[in-house]
Design brief:
By secondary structure, the chain is mostly helical. It is 60% helix and 8% strand. A three-stranded antiparallel beta sheet has the order 1-3-2. The chain starts with 7 loop residues before the first strand and ends in a 5-residue tail after the last helix. 16% of the residues are buried.
């Protein structure tokens, strides 16, 4: 996450971006900005662990003089650009893995379609109708997931 931040950043910026990048690597219903909301919900905790997390980083990061939770990093711009590209790849990989996990649940477990529908509704509030009866096949699941995605049940 550090290479994706500006050279001078705050504890809030670190955790907000880190959590948002992580959520973007999954099929998640969270709206943009969820990382900031989580940070603000427990600011003291995140501010306490930030120096520890930065201390074990391989990057050169120092506290900005005169501030308690502001930091300055020395990361080459080429490395920063590569890190941004890597997060885009991680996002795609994560979404593919999430889809594969859903497919495995669909085909492996009794009640797989109901589990998928429950999981989507629990996280997004979108009531997905699982394929029923003989229609428990991957095509019907694909169509149901496509409809759920179009209704923004996950990103």
């Amino acid at each position: 996450v550090l290479p994706c931040l500006p050279a001078t950043f705050t504890s809030q910026m670190l955790w907000s971006l880190g959590l948002d990048l992580s959520y973007a690597s999954e099929l998640r219903p969270e709206r943009p900005g969820q990382g900031k909301r989580l940070y603000l919900a427990d600011r003291d905790y995140y501010d306490r662990i930030t120096p520890v997390a930065i201390g074990i980083s391989r990057f050169s990061v120092s506290s900005t003089p005169g501030t308690e939770f502001s930091f300055t990093s020395k990361i080459p711009s080429a490395y920063r650009e590569n890190a941004r590209k890597a997060w885009k790849v991680r996002s795609l990989q994560g979404k593919i893995l999430s889809i594969l996990r859903l497919l495995k649940a669909f085909t492996t477990f009794h009640g797989g379609p109901d589990y998928i529908a429950w999981k989507i509704e629990r996280h997004s509030g979108y009531a997905m109708s699982p394929p029923s009866g003989r229609n428990h096949n991957l095509l019907s699941l694909g169509l149901a997931l496509w409809r759920a995605w179009r209704k923004q049940a996950f990103r």
